[in-house]
Amino acid sequence: MGEFGIIAQVLVNGILFGTMYGIAAIGLSLIYGTMRIIFFAQGAIIVFFAYICYWFFALLGLDPYLSLILIIPISLLLGMGFYFGLFKEAAALEDKNISLLIAIGLMWLVENFMAVVWSGDPRTVVTAYTSWVLRPGGLNISFTRLMALLIALLSSVGVFVFLKRTLIGTAVRAASEDMESTTLMGINPNWVNAVTFAIGIGLAGTAGVGLATVYSFDPTYGFTFVIMSVIALAFGGMGNVFGALLGGIILGVLQGLGAYFVSPTWADAICFGAFLLVLMFRPQGLFGKKE
Amino acid sequence: MVKKSKKQKMKDEKLAKHPFNLLKSLIPTKLTRNHIYIIIVALIVAAFATVPSFIDVDTSYFAYFLFLCFLYIVIAQGWNVVAGYAGQISLCQNTFFGLGAYTTALLWLLDVTKTGYYFDPVLMVLSGLVPAILAIIIGIPLLSRLRGDYFAIGTLGVQFSVTVLFLKGGAFTKGADGLHLPSTVFQSMTPYYWTGFLLALFAIAVVYFINRSRIGLALKAIREDETAAASRGVHILKYKVFAFAVGAFLAGIGGSLFAYYLFHINPDSVMHLNWLFFPILMCVLGGNGTIIGPIIGAFFLAAISSFGDVYFAQMHPIFSGLLIILVMKFMPTGIIGLKDRIFSRR
Fold first, then answer.
1. Chain A residues within an 8 Å CB radius of B89
2. Which candidate among A83, A252, B46, B334 keeps its CA 20 to 30 Å from the CA of B241?
């Protein structure tokens, strides 16, 4: 495999992993749309579901992809629960910093809870197909990464269809444009917020399964993950489902290239630098329209 | 007006000569609320200043606890200026803290200023100024272009970039291993107690004077409504950058004090996310945007983490997370806000 082949491989890996950032970013984007906060706990919750997936696998012997059938409803309910349990009062307040701080508190709680329950050691889900590798045109694509890509694409299409085709989805889109007018049209803001939370956490659940099968993870990994998702979100522009996914892919590729050409630690610095530049000069995102 | 009888006059004079009334005439006739506050503050300061004469600072855990409280007060007031008064959520306070610690360590190890180094005022002021200058450099572009959440995530980007720079600093910062200060100079905890105490007083004084001045008024106006403040002629960028720099300065001198305590400076210890979350937690617990709130928060948090360390080690971060959620849910204005809520309830 020549130089070109390696770069192609780096690109493919970047795309495959970037979709993980992408689905986390879609969740952040939806929650930002209606609640106007960055939901910092997203990363910790993704890792939490990775652990749940690990438990289903290690204790019950459940196949990770099969456990999606359980994890998706659990995560949807958990999202609703989070909204009604924690954010309902704060969402009605003018001061959005309170919701933001609740999210930070939740992140801290979940992260340390995982550190106590599952200890700080990295975990992996190793199944029979973890080592399967597909070789189209000289590239190595591991089966689990491809599945993660597939899950990410399916769930983002699902969310997109839900937002475009259903009445609740329309309400969510309307609320992210203008919450006040939407409320005046007779839509209950609590239900809109609860639905966005449910979808956001649901996406975190699917991302968690993808993460568990591909990478080893530990409790503190969530924070890195949410930061990367925020960067993906900034690349794609707030409130844009496919923009967020594309932003994640761009970020994944950028990280991969940076790691290959410079070094893995500097790759992160390159991502943050690009992120700051995008924030400064295109705050509406790379694909957003200028307001 | 009724003329007083001679008898009455004599009685008054006699009463005025009474020792008790003579004494009373020395005190201002009207003991205003301000006088009471000054007396209370003076008593509290005197109480903390006499602590070292009652307990042995070197061996007592209580003295260490107070040192921790003082350190927390300094960094909490730093965040209070940026977020509580100016309303800008800065998520790179730990960077400023770490930068202050690294400034102290590097100037000491590279032998730059030729002053005493150990508890050297020059070094501590420089450790505050370096983060403040960084805050001005990054604050002007960030604060002029980004608002609210975008500013928060922008500072997060700065934070990670700087941490990576220090991790990859090569021979200059010694990477992840960090710098070792000559720990042989350590003799006693007493200077730590006094320096911490003075720095805490300094931080409180800074916030007090900002609060009373036109700057504080401008910052509060920006926090409440930026557009309205701008239309009233407040130079928004100038004041925001000022608040950001003051916050960085306080975090930096806090970092310097911690560097003297730790002697081993590495990115994982001084740029840890705890140094970002603790000030936030202390401010919101006590009451953001007040002078006394962060002080109460600092004592509260130090008490909880010390108690937690002793009785359920490793579990207490869970409680702090839970605590932020509960406080924000049930009393979003903090412990200070409780007073208003109790008195306003009829």
1. 97, 100
2. B334
